[in-house]
Amino acid sequence: MANWVTTCLVLVSAYIVAALLETASLLQFTGHLQGQRLCEYYGFAACACLALVVGARAWPRLGQWRRGLGLAAFGFAVAHTLLAYEHVFGGRLEGIEFLPDTERWATWVGLAALLLLVPLALTSSNFWVRRLGRRRWGRLHRLVFPAALLAVGHALWLGASGVGGQLLVVALAVAALVARLRPTVPLPGERHAEH
Ligand code: HEM
Question: What's the whole-model pTM score?
Answer without folding.
Answer: 0.93
